[in-house]
Amino acid sequence: MKISNIQLFWIIFTFLSGNMFLLTISPAIAIAKQDAWISFIIAAGFGGLIIFIGARAALLFPHHTFLDFSKLIFGKWFGTFIVLLFLFQLYTVMANILSEFSVFATKILLPNTPTWVIMLTMIFLIIYGTFIGGIEGIGRSSEVFGPIILIAFLVVLPLSIPNIEINRLLPVVTDTAIMSLLKGALVPASFFGESIIILMLVFFMNEHKKVIRVSLSALMVTSVFMVISVVFVIMIFSAEIAGKLKYAGFELIQYINVMDFLQNLEIIAVLVWVLSVFIKLSVYLFLASYFTAQLFKIKDWKKTIWFVSAVSFSLSLIMIAMNSYGIKYVDVIWIPFVLPINIIGIPLLLWIVGGIRKKVIFKKK
Amino acid sequence: MKNKKLLMMSFVVFLLSGCWDSQEIDKRAIWLGTGLDIGEEDSIEVSGEIVIPKNLTSTNNDNGGNKGFIIVSDSGKNIGDVLQKLEGKLSREAFTGQRRVIIIGEELARRGLQKELDYFGRAPQVGIREHLFIVKGGTAKSILNFQETVEKTPTMTAMKKHQNTDGVGDTALLDFFITTNSAGTSPTIPAIQLSNIEDDKESLEIAGLAILNRELKLVGFLNEDERKDFQWITGKLKNRTVSLSNNEGNTSINLTKINSSMTPQIHSNKISFKVNLEGKGYLYESNMDLNIDKTDNLKQLERQFENEIYEKAFQMITTVQENYGTDIFGFGEVLHRKHPQQWKKIKENWDETFKDLEVSLDVKITIEHAGLLGPSLLTKESEIRE
After folding, report:
1. pLDDT tens sequence across A300-310
2. Cβ–Cβ gap A112/B338 under 8 Å
3. What CA–CA distance (Å, rounded) separates A196 from A57?
4. Which of A364, B77, B307, B338 is the most exposed place for a label (fewest CB within 10 A)?
């Protein structure tokens, strides 16, 4: 059960692109206005740093799983605690994506369908994929889905060129202070930060030489598309309108009208998003099941799939309920806790302490 | 093992049975245009133009006197409220995914649009790419009830005429939203009207542009020629025919390459604007004795056209400044983009500044060729003025 470099590239690209395209553009523009594209560049830089640190930390002990090497570095109890923190992240973010997915689908496509039906359909799909294929299956499906998303981007984005008005990008960095550029980078940064899964994925790679280069180039491709999309959204809708739209990426594609002939292409946006969500949820489901199994010393990790999906399904139902009380996962859990602790703090600690420990261990030997 | 497979296969039933929200196309009524007017007791009256596909597709002209569309209307608190009421008047559920045109009656536009148009951005069934019109001197309902012979429905008539006349087209709604949100531009909406052509015959025509102020209330109209000048200044014009008549006769040019620029100039805190209009084109018609084969004569014509355009456009800018006092040209937005620091200081009462803004205009016309003729075919050799 191993994945290749190419598969890693497509996993990371698919994993990031669809969700970011739909969910991060508007919040960033709402804060950073017409300079939101700078926020995205900042966020992409941050994502690159996270991948670098995460991969470096994991590459210290590439033949140990995440649980094993964090135990090795921090000892049994603290190491387990760290994995528990990550499991918390995996379970909750899965639930969050599920709820976002179903809410979007009911809003745009299926207004009369109960959200739990959409969630269950998706859950059965990812259970099937993960159960049959494991990480290898996920890698292979992203090898198919990733290029589809890439082609969709390449075909659809140029179609909106007739609608653009370059002036809407002006003035650059005078209406917004540096602070709001950074604040605007927060939401895209938390999505780019999800690439910390590299920390757990390295173990499943069949070769470890090019991990950093491959994952960084996947991030690079995603961020180029994101920056172009943001620039397009601003040039078409103007910053004021784009900040008020819920799904600016979706509207960008819906707005395409070529010669009154090519219209209503938004279904492509939905396709991109569904494929991306499928890969994203599958990766999370796999990692969550694998490490839950390892934590409880269950030999066959596939047995925990059912447990994990049941938990995240119930969590996502709770999250939809919470959402209507105005409590948003990204604001309440992800940005204050997951981002500083799981995405920045722990990988950095693992890398530094792990580096020192490795030398000590080797010296002993 | 066999049982397991059977179980799996029975699951497929759920996946293949189709879509929860599916609706057959022949069970739906296609909603093409929306008309908004003031209803009874200050409510809003919403009219919908619903097409009947069967009557639209018939190729022979006499389809038993059946129109290709019906109009339903009712009034209520807001658009959603009325749509709810309209359901009772339709035998099929209205499908708004093909909605293309919004028409607003003049009365309603004068009352103000601040509280009326949210629905069109919010409803998920259709994007914000839509035509938007204000009816000059009439109600939206009167437009929707009007049928012409060329196009099958009134909204299609309005749409196509608007496209033909180089209008902003289906970006009108988005443009309206963008200008509403911008401190340096006031919104404008294309206008249409019904005008008498014979005793009891009417025709639907594009009638220039409606000007709205900051509170989104209609304050006045530009006529068709002024609209074209306006679009030229704001860089949205693609081609234009300009005609000129003097004591020698008359002549027209067709401008096909059109450019414009607005440049803010700041001298010791006083802001002025320089507007450049540039047009290149060819001679379209010349009912004059002038020998236009001669470059000098063409140059002379160019100057005359420049004057003609200058006067009309300058007059239009001054009228807007003095009579309406609302910056539809987006001078403020240009200032915002080019001199953001200055803009911060004055954006609060920009409309006041705009009223007294000094605008200088510069027109440059180039006639590239004179068509397939030298002197006019109707002029005798001896009468040609060199």
Report:
1. 888 889 999 99
2. no
3. 11
4. A364
